[in-house]
Each structure stands twice: as C-alpha cells, then as structure tokens.
Amino acid sequence: MGYMGTAILNISPYAFSAVGIAVAIGVSVLGASWGIYITGSSLIGAAIKAPRITSKNLISIIFCEAVAIYGVIVAIILQTKLQSVEQAYTAESMRGGYAVFASGLIVGFANLACGICVGIIGSSCALSDAQNSTLFVKILVIEIFGSALGLFGVIVGIIMSSQVTWTTS
Questions:
Q1: How far is it, in rounded angstroms, from Cα 109 to Cα 113?
Q2: Phi and psi of 160, rounded to 5°?
Q3: What whole-number distance in Å separates Cα of residue 29 and Cα of residue 33?
Q4: In the chain, domain spans
Q5: How many CB atoms are located within 10 Å of the residue 36 CB?
Q6: Contact, 74 vs 103, CB < 8 A?
Q7: Fewer C-beta within 10 Å: the chain N or C terminus?
Q8: What is the pTM of this model?
C-alpha cells in the first residue's frame, strides 16, 4: 500500500466525520453567501431604475438563504450519527466515518452549486423585472427549479448517511 493509502487508513474516522460535517455547513454557507452577493448587487443596481422591485425581489435572497439552512440541517443530522466507541479503527467505524465525510462533501458542494445557480437566476430576475414586470413570475419559477438542486444534494446526503453505524464493543 502506498503512503497515501496508509495515511488515509490511519486517520481516525471521527476526523473524517468532523471534516465532512464542517464541509456540509461551511460550503453550503459559502454557496448561500455567493448567491446573495450576486443577487443583492443586481437588485440594488436595478432598484435605481425601478424602486418597486426591491421588496418583491427579496424572495430571491430568501431562496439563497435556504441553501445555508440546508447545510445546517444536514450538519445537525450528521452530528447525531456520531457515537463514542472504544475501537475507532474497525471496518464498520471506518465505513461510517467515510460515509459521513462523503455525505458532507456531497451536500456542501451541491449547495455551493445551488447557491451560485439561484444567485445568477435571482440576479436576472431583478434585472428583467426592472425592465418588464410581467417577467417576474416566469423567472421565479425557473429559480425554484434551480433551488431544487440543493434539495437533491440534501436527499442524497441523508440517504448516504442513513446506514451509518459504529462498532460499540
């Protein structure tokens, strides 16, 4: 076995679990903040031409914020999967640690992509609403479909972590 394989097998499964949980919440919040940045800057710019769009287009900011909430929910779910065990380096514990790690990665990066997607669509929603108010609902429907990407990541993460068990003896 190479150096990397040896190193990976000698890292505690709890360390992998902790990194997975941190990635789930951290990268999800990064995706939400990036989406809010994209949407908010366009919303403020477009509100100069049409101040009426400001309150109506805050729904795009809420969609971006939901991405961070997805990460928090999954991090809480993953945290409840951890248990204290005497022997951390059993096959079952290693599998559980890797499953929590992979679940956190999937949720975090799915929500990163979702946040950017919702931010870009929210930006175009604000800009187009400033030009033509009849486009708001049509683009909002597209934004809802973009928001579903984060939910898919959450579902996959929950499914991956549902069978996590730790050796208790």
A1: 6
A2: -65, -35
A3: 6
A4: 15-81+96-161
A5: 23
A6: yes
A7: C
A8: 0.89
Please state, as a whole number, how many other Cβ atoms lie within 10 Å of the Cβ of residue 152.
12
Q: Which CATH superfamily is domain 15-81+96-161 in?
A: lithium bound rotor ring of v- atpase (1.20.120.610)
> Which helix (H) or strand (E) element contains residue 160?
helix 136-161
Q: What is the pLDDT of residues 50-102, one digit of tens each?
A: 999 888 899 999 999 999 999 999 999 999 888 766 666 777 878 888 899 99
Cβ atoms 146, 121 nearer than 8 A: yes
Percent of the chain that is helix, strand, coil (3-state, to 5): 85, 0, 15
Mean per-residue pLDDT, 9-37: 92
The C-alpha atoms of residue 142 and residue 137 are separated, in whole angstroms, by: 9
